[in-house]
Amino acid sequence: MTLDLAHPDLYTTDARFDMWQEYLRSDAKLWSEPGISPSGFWSVFSHQDVSTVLSPKSPFTSEYGMMLGFDAEHADHSGGRMLVVSEGSWHSALKRLIGPFLSRLRAPELQSVLREEVGQIIGRLRSEDSTDIALSVGPRLPAAIVCEVIGVPLSEREQLIELTNHAFGGEESSFDKMTPAEAHTEILFYFHELIERRQKEPGPDLVSALLADSRLSTEDVLVNCDNVLIGGNETTRHSITGAFHAFSAYPGALAALHADPGLTERAVEEVVRWTSPAAHVLRVATEDCEIGGQQIREGQAVVAWLAAANRDERLFPDPHRFDPDRAPNRHLGFGTGPHHCLGAALARLELHELIRQLALEARAVEADGRIQWMRSNLVQGYSHLEVTMHWH
User: Fold this and answer.
1) Are the C-beta atoms of residues 98 and 106 closer than 8 Å to each other?
2) Residue 291 pLDDT > 80
3) In 3D, which of 129, 124, 142 has the Cα closest to residue 353?
């Protein structure tokens, strides 16, 4: 019997960290038989194996899909069109179009939106006795920024945040008003309407820039806006929630940042490593090959567990500890290789501003009760994190 590592129940408790530790120490390459993933898949866990699979020189592709459930025989219909599941010259072309909207160059324009959003978050936290960070704080910052980038009008952002919660709530009962599939359909309908508006009235936003490029069909614009919305929202929100988790579990961290604001950049990297919201990425072998001595056949899917690699003690001494001054910190929280997260710069900006203001004003973060994890194999995220804040 092999364990079906695709089963979302495995990721609802802290037990996953012990499981990964065991696999890291034995340098495991595990095969999961067909189950939740229709054709079965290999799993790799170590920093080295994960880096090898994602390397630009490795014989692997994301064009069949980049997450569990997809493989050579069950391909993602967006494969070869959407940024995250394309390769080669088309991938490069999309990167050149989308990249500037997500780069550090946008920082000055987005800084005022960021400051205002973080200010509102702090204000809300100050006004409440306790707050569920996962529900009411985590989603706000990334959604505001990604909506700004895509060109979603302010009046429509709440609606899109709500739909995003439903689309990516995994199996969460708190988002059971509609199924993830229904929510995703609503998001696509919304983008259809936004695209029609931008065709008539272009603006300085991503939708308009994509529409202006004759190589992209309307459908290409649609799937890539969807990709940016998912990428921008679904991981950073859990890093933001995880920052509060880290500060509650390691009280000295917030005090250290208050005493030395110069630590903020390192703390941002440590939040990304420690939270690892993107639990895995999947690739399909384009030829027979070998990873760390394990033969992989052409067409087989390999899952690279980023969240496990980020707790590999060979690179991260005392890996389960949150250390705001950790250096070096060669985490794989944003992936690596050609599909390194294009939104990494924006995620870092968001976390930097939040941590900076929190360290300035908050004395302590106290978790009220148990951390509740999402039931998901893709996103290592929080369904509930109730905290009480203590201020300077």
Assistant:
1) no
2) yes
3) 142
